[in-house]
Amino acid sequence: MQDLIERAARDLAGTRRAVALTGAGISIESGIPPFRGPGGLWEKIDPMEVAHIDAFRRDPRKVWDLLIKGMQTVLAAAVPNPAHRGLATLERLGRLQAVITQNVDGLHQQAGSQDVIEFHGTFAWQRCMTCERRCRSDELDLTEIPPRCECGGIFRPDCVFFGELIPPEHLVRAQQLAAECRVMLVVGTSATVHPAAMLPHLARGAGARVIEINPEPTPLTGTVSDYLIPGPAGPVVDALADAVAALQADSGGQA
Asked: What is the value of pTM for the model shown?
């Protein structure tokens, strides 16, 4: 695996136009369970009953009780792991332009990443469904469920529910970054959920090198990605950031 990390470090050290696409696998090491797959949240509850915008509109109290309150508790206890911090380091080194994440946990920002496209929004902020006022989730008054805004409207997480569209500005910028990057890191996701799933394909089609960091092969492996670094995101990305920093120091910071 070390040979692959060194190979990826050379690829990253040779460009300043790299982007990362991250998914649930990067945050598992922070104690956040995935939504999909074995052990995922959707095995326990039907997403159409608690995570569809129509379900929220029908019974916001039920959705808050069954989904949102629990998610808030989990996310409040989570802290960035070495994978989040490693990507922030790559940005500080001038190698990573941006992180495109499918996650709603806000851990990339907590780790220090400055340019984060939250493809599916965030649970870190709430938005009033009436007046559009936003407030931080940790400042929300939960003595009443569902919590209400000063205007009387109901607060909801500022994320994308099933039945809603990806914010167009996020989609357009993510597509632009994917089409213009020279290296794409795909970390903790098999990229099978659309429209995020198209981004590695778009990068590969534009001539970028696509590098996977995942514990197991995915549908991207051997077809879209140039190579897979097998292993958990935390230690792999941490080692990769260290290797890039060493190469950059040896070359005097030159691309």
From this structure: 0.92
Reported as a single tens digit per residue, the pLDDT across 217-242 is 999 999 999 999 999 999 999 999 99
Q: Is 153 contained in some domain?
A: no
CATH of the domain at 221: 3.40.50.1220
Phi and psi at 141, nearest 5°, equal -85, 110
Place of tokens 């960035």: 80
Domain of 178?
A: 1-30+78-120+166-255
Distance CA(105)–CA(207), nearest Å, equals 31
Q: Considering the domain boundaries, does residue 52 fall inside one?
A: no
Q: Are 129 and 153 in contact (CB under 8 A)?
A: yes
Packing angle, helices 82-92 and 233-250, rounded to 10: 20
Question: Would you say 170 and 161 are in contact if contact means Cβ atoms under 8 Å apart?
Answer: no
Q: 49 lies in a domain? A: no
Catalytic (active-site) positions:
120
